[in-house]
Design a protein that fits this description.
526 residues
């Protein structure tokens, strides 16, 4: 490495370095002077846990803190909310007020930052930041965003708890109506099938058995009366007379049986309930005997009344025969009644299984509805408690820890760094240009290059001697180059000033270019 050679070449190309250093320094100084200040202000929020333990009373809002903050952020960064915030806080004034609504929304989304930090064993914090060119306005807007976050959190939680309570209230009302409708249908069905319900099946079967016994007893009584009538007729035909004691004996037998049944019924009432089937059977037999005795008395009275005056009284044979016929007719009537009643009981017993299945299905539906209703009432009670907790702000909530204040110093731009960066950038570009020029120059300029390329050893070298005209031309070229550099610097500075004053502030132009570059590269915005 021939350092002295490269140093001479660098000194010879030093004007390019000076040109780029001046250009970079000019740009850095211009941006450092003309870029508007950007202030940043932040507020800190904290997510507090429930004020009431869950084992005593739980809130019905189950959204996690992170999800809740994300939802609130998306709602605040909507187009309508941002435009309303920009108009209310006068964020865009002067020429900025003429910006399209989409540009304002994109700019505000880039300048607003809502970050969630902490979690786990640490407190969950929410940092809200905003950037603006006015220190007082940046604090006001940041605090307004905090107010929007707090109000949106309360509105969201109370809305969720209120909707939960409304849902369970409607569910309780719906189940009440269904239970009432099903109860009415069950009652109507039971009234329509009162004689064929499952709970009275055993009683109706005992009634059926009792009626069957009574039919058998009536058959025996009928056979006895027919035998008695046959003997009476044979005795009268053979002897021409009958014993008088038959009538009194027959009547006294019914009377004695009636009296015995009454005594048995009185004794049974002492130990049995009124609804006992045995007592009901005894009542039916007593009523039948009373009817028989009454009919016998009525028949005797009619015979005595219908007898013509002066005619002879009916004979004992006629009286006894009429009594037997009356008893046989009464047995036939009672048998018909018993058979009709047995047919009704058989029909009701046959319909009972179907009614039992229908009632069981209704009862199952009723039990299911009742269980759903009980759960709905329990959930409604918890929903009322949760809604009260959210209304009193006793559940999970976001509270303000540190409000935003107006900053004293801007966060950007760093004017010293911009100026130094312009000088450093010009220096690097100038040195890079000189290095590229030298690397691309393939002419032979040193004895070592003659040896390397031609393979001969140079005995001596004579430097190139410029003539007076060449020296004058070189001086002219240098003056022209210096003039061009100065003109370029002046034109660049004037052009930047013209853009900044007449078209768009350079700060906003730079921010817009950065935003467009991010969108083109797909970089996420803060």
């Amino acid at each position: 490495m021939d350092l002295s050679f490269y140093l001479r070449r660098f000194v010879r190309r030093l004007h390019w370095l000076v040109l780029f250093v001046l250009l970079g320094a000019s740009l850095g100084l211009y941006f450092a002077i003309t870029l508007p200040p950007v202030y940043g202000s932040s507020a800190r929020l904290i997510v507090e846990a429930e004020q009431i333990p869950d084992d005593l009373a739980a809130s019905t809002v189950r959204t996690s803190a992170g999800e809740q903050i994300s939802i609130i952020e998306q709602r605040i960064l909507t187009r309508e909310v941002l435009l309303e915030l920009a108009n209310r806080m006068a964020i865009y004034t002067g020429e900025d007020a003429q910006l399209p609504a989409s540009a304002k929304v994109a700019d505000l989304r880039d300048r607003i930052s809502i970050e969630l930090t902490g979690g786990g064993r640490n407190a969950l914090l929410v940092n809200v930041r905003f950037r603006d060119s006015d220190a007082q306005r940046v604090a006001r807007v940041t605090n307004e965003i905090v107010t929007l976050i707090l109000s949106e959190n309360v509105r969201m939680r109370t809305t969720v708890s209120g909707q939960t309570l409304e849902f369970f209230t409607q569910e309780v009302d719906r189940l009440e109506q269904e239970i009432s409708s099903l109860s009415a249908r069950m009652l109507s069905f039971q009234e329509q099938n009162l004689d064929a319900l499952p709970d009275s099946l055993d009683f109706r079967r005992s009634q059926q058995a009792g009626l069957q016994e009574r039919l058998i007893q009536l058959g025996r009584d009928e056979q006895s009366l027919e035998e008695r009538r046959t003997r009476l007729v044979e005795l009268f035909e053979n002897t021409g007379r009958v014993p008088d004691v038959e009538v009194s004996g027959a009547l006294s037998a019914d009377m004695q049986q009636l009296m015995q049944l009454r005594r048995d019924y009185a004794s049974a009432r002492v130990v049995l309930a009124e609804t006992n089937p045995r007592l009901e059977l005894m009542q039916a037999r007593i009523a039948a005997l009373e009817k028989t005795v009454a009919e016998q008395q009525a028949a005797a009275d009619r015979l005595s009344e219908n007898a013509p005056e002066g005619s002879a009284a009916p004979s004992a044979f006629e009286i006894q025969l009429a009594d037997i016929e009356s008893q046989l007719a009464d047995i036939q009537s009672r048998r018909q009644e018993l058979r009709s009643r047995m047919e009704e009981l058989a029909d009701s017993i046959a319909r009972t299984p179907g009614n039992s299945v229908t009632l069981d299905a209704m009862q199952r539906d009723y039990d299911n509805l009742q269980a759903q209703y009980n759960r709905a009432v329990s959930n409604q009670s918890r929903a009322e408690t949760g809604d009260m907790i959210e209304a009193l702000s006793k559940g999970q909530r976001i509270s303000l820890v540190e409000p935003a204040i107006a900053p004293r110093n801007p966060m950007s731009p760093n004017r010293k760094v911009l100026a130094a960066g312009g000088v450093a950038g010009g220096l690097l570009l100038g040195m890079g240009l000189i290095a590229v020029i030298e690397l691309l120059n393939s002419t032979v300029r040193r004895p070592s290059e003659i040896t390397a390329k031609l393979g001969i050893e140079a005995l001596a070298t004579v430097p190139y001697i410029h003539t007076a005209d060449q020296l004058r031309n070189q001086r002219k070229r240098r003056k022209l180059l210096v003039g061009a550099v100065l003109a370029g610097v002046l034109l660049l500075g004037g052009g930047l000033w013209l853009v900044d004053s007449q078209i768009m502030p350079l700060g906003e132009a730079v921010e817009m270019a950065i935003a467009r570059a991010r969108n083109a590269l797909g970089a996420p915005q803060s």
